[in-house]
Amino acid sequence: MIPFMAVVAEDMTSVLLEMINNSSTGSIEVDVNDFTKTLANDVIADCVFGVNSSSPREERNELYKMGTEFFENNLKEVFLIILVDLAGATMSETENEATENIEGDLRDIFGLSPVEPYEDSGSEYVPEQRSRSSSRSLQDIFGDSSIEDNEEGQSTVFTNKNTRKRMRKENLWKKNVRKNKRARGEAYVNTKGVLIPAKQIDKGIRCICNQKCHEKIVQDRQKQLFSNFYALANFDLQSAYLYSLIHVVIKARSHVRVRDTTSDRVAGNITSKPKEFSRLYHLPEANGKHIRVCKSFFKQVLKVSDGRLTRVLKNKPLGDPAPIDKRGRHIPSNKTPETKVNEVKDFINTFPKYDSHYTRHKSETRQYLPPHLNLSIMYSEYKSKVEGSVSKYIFEKIFNENFNLTFHAPVTDSCKRCDNFKVQIDACDNNELSKKNELTIAKELHLRKAESAMKNLKLDMQNAKQDNDTTVIIFDLMKTLPTPVISTGISYYKRQLWTYCLGIHNAGTDEMFMYVWDESTASRGPQEIGSCLLKFIREHVHTKRLIMYSDQCGGQNRNIKVAVLCMHIVSSPQFTVENIDHKFTVSGHSFSSCDRAFGLVEKQKKYFPDIYVPEHWNNVILAARKKKPFKIVEMKRDDFISTKALETNITNRKISVDRSKVEWLKIQWILYNKSHPLSMFFKYSNETEVLFTEIFGKHKYKEKYVRYFTKMVASAMKHREEFQIYRPDVIHLLSEARKGRLKHDDKVSGERKDFGFASVPESVYGKKTVSRVWDHLDLVAQAVTFYLNGFDNIAATLSFALHELALQPEIQERLVREIKQHHTRNGGRLNVRSIQTMKYMDMVVSETLRLWPPETVLERVCARPFNLGKPNPKASTDYVVQRGERITIPVWSIHRDPIYFPNPKKFNPERFSEQNKANLNMCYMPFGSGPRNCIGSKFALCELKIILYYFLLFIEVYPSKRTCIPPKLSMDHASLQVNGAHWLMFKARSQF
Q1: Where in the sequence is the domain holding 554, given as residue range(s)?
Q2: pLDDT digit string (tens) for 515-574?
Q3: Where is heme annotated to bind (predicted)?
Q4: Same domain flag for 621 and 730
Q5: Helices (H), 605-729
Q6: Domain termination residue (choose one: 284, 318, 352)
Q7: Of 271, 513, 668, 769, whose CA is between 20 and 30 Å from 865?
Q8: In this structure, are 380 and 489 located in the same domain?
Q9: Is 199 contained in some domain?
Q10: What is the model's pTM?
């Protein structure tokens, strides 16, 4: 194919020389992006499709137009076609129709031909199917149901406040603090202000009784018993403990006193009554066995008094349990009768009450009385209707302790579903208990879903202030603002101009942005909401994860237009966001920071009685909050975008991958992830434990492109077969492959062995016998793949090569000298062998591919476990890449690493001289490496060298005033390209 390349290069050079000669300055300024694409298009058209210089220019221009349009408009789709095929999603009716049209074109050209299944015996590696959770960032989302406990290892329990009276914290009362310290044996200050020291066990307690108690209970055990007793920290528990350790038995024997006579008792000489019971004191050993001890030892170990022991054991002989401390627990003598309390409750219940849907997370029972009421009015009404009324103090006490009521009306709207549930439940009679229970359960589920959403919102807002790699935003659209607002009566009868305001609150920075526009600029649909979000994310979100909260308005937030925009954000290199969680709060329960901000604006509006133009609303918004004023962003017409192009490139699925119907109105959480660019994950719950369901929005193939390339390849093959035309190009090779005549040439001649240092050796994989029947779509796909890969990448590499040569004229002159020597030595002829003799040409091309590689990253899947060793000096274990894991190789970063390429930003072809090649090792890979390298590397190198050969032979290139130094790369292309036009100056070379 080298002669075809040479002809195209010569023709293009002739056209440029003619343009230079016709210019008044003897030079022309050229956008090399456009120039090299045209040149690459003509080379590929000639070598692949047989559209050569003798073909009409219109045919080549049409191919160029279709190729450019397809590649630029379908940039992501070109690389997602493989993902689509691997996903195995079912085609829609439109896609089936397009496929039938293409097959119809092939039948018209070739007729029907059977297609046999593919059989391949030559590949040792079979890739695994695409996994839903292959992304490391999604492992926690799919299937992780672990729930963390709090610091104490117990789940947090929330109790609802059922009364208006604030909860008393009795444990903080001074008397209870004093009582608790006393029970724990700690030092405390008594009611007289005297400091009572802490209880301490005596060192070396010795017992003089016959039982030798101190030998049975050693000193360490004594301390342990003392600590355990006061660790109970409760007077009643300690009493029960003492009660269990002391046994009361009937006395075994009596001792008769000499003076113990009846006359003595009558005279009162004997004051003590003979005891009837004996007390046996015990202390437990470590094994739980009780050891009998004397009373003195028992009291010294536990530090208790005779009086406490007497009170604990007072009623034990009667079989009563351990006594409970009744101090402060008696019923007051002046307690209000229960009948009066119920009378007050019944009276309060006669007032109508209203529910709120935004305070349930604080109190499920909070209700609202009409705002014109207060306690004084209610008590006056009570006194006028009830005889023998209680005092106002008691009335207020009953109101506060038995009801959870407040007087101001809720400042937010109600929930329609809750109102509907209430009406249906109230309408059920006693015979419809089952229906009533079902409605009650449904209402409770609805309320719990609302609580879960608000709970997640608060948790995410807290995490956003601590996690530097996550941004949490809440957005909502304010109610429309009318213009003008004037006191003139006629304004009430005229059509007003509406101003729209979208509030976006950044929870991490606590900043509120107000995106404002009026209806003459744009509407207030999902594309307008998406445009504001896109502008905010582009300017203010620089994290990898984004969490968005909004209400469930389907016409603005929960729809396919916002969904495809989020897919675009996570897949576009313009944004840092790789993961978007869009969570929806329940309507009627979604009082958020945006609602509070809108309330401030409404409150401030009364200070601006006259508003004549929409811009005046900005003054109201700015004045609404003094501390951290709202940031106003005025949206212009150019700021609004259309998602139509994004929508037309995917199929809006009505079913998920598990074949279940997608109910958009019930979706509570949508996830978008960069590693799944055409997928949307959703669930009908805000609970993290619930797994996501996937919708795969399959790419819509552009039928006109597919039909165009199909017809071109098929027609060319059919034409050559009919007229027995032989032309050694890709079409010929594909025809031979279809007929089964194409074989791998194991014996490569010396002149074809190497096309340059940048080319990669062919792999032994794929050389084995392959049993396959090629259908016509296979052949078309091969030709189009060859065209697309050779079109944009070759053009970009040529552009950067000319750019570097223009900036470094000494390198350009040295290369030109080598080209002239070759031209003279070979009589202007080019072939494979002569191309290999131009060593400096190979060095220049190799350095261009190093500095500006056509593929900035390579992706591979690990075929078997591979040990990479320790990842860093501090690591203790090796890092092993497991089979099936995806590996990303950053070619751009490796090529610019100073460890492998000193002074990497400098264009230096000497890196690839004969003496320096050995130092490069495996760090140079412009076309990849291994079995799955670029099969077109030799073709690409030939094309690059031949075009540079003819171009530099006759034309000199140097920078112009508009040359971008250093080049600023575009973020909108898959291959490396300068942002905007890539301007260089061309002039004819003076000497040859």
Answers
A1: 453-648
A2: 999 999 999 999 999 999 999 999 999 999 999 999 888 888 888 899 989 998 998 888
A3: 934
A4: no
A5: 616-623, 644-648, 703-723
A6: 318
A7: 769
A8: no
A9: yes
A10: 0.44
